Amino acid sequence: GENVEQHPSTLSVQEGDSAVIKCTYSDSASNYFPWYKQELGKGPQLIIDIRSNVGEKKDQRIAVTLNKTAKHFSLHITETQPEDSAVYFCAALGPTAGNKLTFGGGTRVLVKP
Amino acid sequence: NAGVTQTPKFRVLKTGQSMTLLCAQDMNHEYMYWYRQDPGMGLRLIHYSVGEGTTAKGEVPDGYNVSRLKKQNFLLGLESAAPSQTSVYFCASRWNSNQPQHFGDGTRLSIL
What residues of chain A, 65 to 104, have a C-beta less than 8 Å from chain B? Predict the structure, then answer.
């Protein structure tokens, strides 16, 4: 089955700096890669996603890049703000029964003012 | 605009007790999922359903059962709770394979 690895597990950045989180996946047939943000006491919320026919996608301060050949994708947050502090999860979806997402282990991001 | 609603939000059980967690979605989604989230281990899929009346095993199904009698509801049951099942449980749903997955806010379950 699919295996998703996420690095780093924790990330501390100064407000205004950029943050980058990287994920690798194992199944070359995976074709959809969402990123979720989880705040304390809440469920994960989708912040951006990318499909395998696209190499990059941006939404204001966040962007995701996908390298299908290397089987890795990354989340980039620019001009970080204290409200960006949360746990971020990457995931991969393959063409399997039930369209099941496989999640990375999460990255705890702390933005220091 | 409820989305995915999980009840209860918190529960404490004794070992051996049984209980049912309820997930309800008002978005007419076909697919529904139950995950557990443990520290440092991300989200692991317990069971899922691809439509009313269907269920299937995920990554960690042992000790749990599920039912999807109505399209909008997905129930997760613990027949005989064990301390290893202490976790935060999340339900999620999606309309089809091309749509994002939406999560509820979780049920925090402690088993003593």
Answer: 89, 93, 97-101, 103-104
Residue type at position B4: V
Q: In the structure encoding, which two tokens stand for residue B71, read together?
A: 């399209």
Task: Using an 8 Å CB-CB cutoff, list chain A residues near B40.
Answer: 9, 105
Q: In chain B, which stretches have pLDDT less than 70?
A: 1
pLDDT digit string, tens, across residues A59-113:
999 999 999 999 999 999 999 999 999 999 999 987 776 678 899 999 999 999 9
Per-residue confidence (pLDDT) for residue A97, from 0 to 100: 66
- Joined together, the tokens standing for residue A55 give 């190499």
